Amino acid sequence: MSDELRFERLIDARRELVFDLFTTPGGQHAFYQGGEPDWVVRSECDLCVGGVWTVEFGPTEDEMYRHRNVFSLIDRPRGIHFTTTETRLDGWSFEYETEILFDERGAQTMMTVVQRGFPTEELRSEHTRGLPGAFAQFEGFVRSRR
């Protein structure tokens, strides 16, 4: 297993709003779209401990990555924790843990994603490339809802 991955972004909105928007289909779509205008994203979320959040995303309906997230903690508006089973285009899958924290910074929110348990350094590194775009898209979504 490799070291954890941590990514932070300061978002100009109160943490209750950031948390609530992230846990909506629109916020989840923005996060997984990653700046690709034609990217296909489907998201369904049962936001409760033990609930499942499934996300399918990719360049076409025939080429979709799949994330199946099972919630182990929901602490509105402070954070959520879930185990992800990620299925790749070739059908291979692996698991890792994700924690998303929403820390109040005055009228802003420091949103932090911490992921642990990647089976290889290569997979961890791959996730570092996607998170900046995901946060940029989500931040734009939050701005449009304030």
Beta content comes to: over 45%
- For the record, the CATH architecture stands as 2-Layer Sandwich
Major β-sheet annotation: 7 strands, antiparallel
Global Rg: 15 Å
Compute the number of structural domains. Answer: 1
CATH C-level label: Alpha Beta
Strand order of the largest sheet: 1-7-6-5-4-3-2
Give the low-confidence spans: none
According to CATH, the fold-level topology is: Alpha-D-Glucose-1,6-Bisphosphate, Chain A, domain 4
CATH superfamily: START domain
Order of helices and strands: EHHEEEEEEH
Number of helices: 3
What percent of the residues sit in helical stretches (DSSP H or I)? 25-40%
Summarize the structure in short:
The chain has one domain (5-145): 2-Layer Sandwich (Alpha-D-Glucose-1,6-Bisphosphate, Chain A, domain 4), CATH 3.30.530.20. Helices cover 29% and strands 45% of the residues.
